[in-house]
Predict the structure.
Amino acid sequence: MRTLPDAVGALLQAADADTLLRDADALAEALADAGWAPEVESGRFSADGWDVVSSAWPPNLSVFRDGDLLDVRRDALAIAATLNAEPQRWAFETEGPDWSGWTTDDPRWDDDQIDWLLWHGQGVVVELFTAPAVPGEVPAHLHLAIERADSPPEGLPRDDARDLRVASEGSIVERWFLVGESDLPDELLATLEADPDQRVSAAAASEHRMRDGGFDDPTG
């Protein structure tokens, strides 16, 4: 079986509702302990060429890895094998073909019937998907999602009172995560851009630039 990067293996071991997905601070701490380094952008971490995009309300994360098609499939199969090796911890299910036992060159990959594989346990739901490249759009990739089992399917509604409280009284980690919340009002983003902690203010400045059109060279 292909050996996963230590940071990925450690993340799978930490995947539970009380350790990894308890709250913003627990999420960041568990990722750091697993070997993931935070990026400037809110909620983003990286390790060994893999990337995490995460949010804190409710706590959840997605792991992405792209590259050569066969390498990506090997990594996806290694993740599935790691989870299936602990049936006492993870209950497995899929609505489509169970590709977790295929080889990387199995012709069934080309049938366009690949669906998410799901595991339930430890108060969380783990989902795994992989897809080939779409020329000119996306490379071959895998997507590993970990979320709380009690998270509503539609997500949590906006909570302006919470956002204001976090911006003024939250921990550094909470404020950093807040920067990346969807539809955060511009005035609250401006407050975070003036945050006394450099990590928070840098994340807010990055988000501000993205709202203004991204990082492309305007003279290019």
About this structure: Residues 216-220 have pLDDT under 50 and may be disordered. The chain has seven helices and eight strands. The longest helix spans residues 69-84.
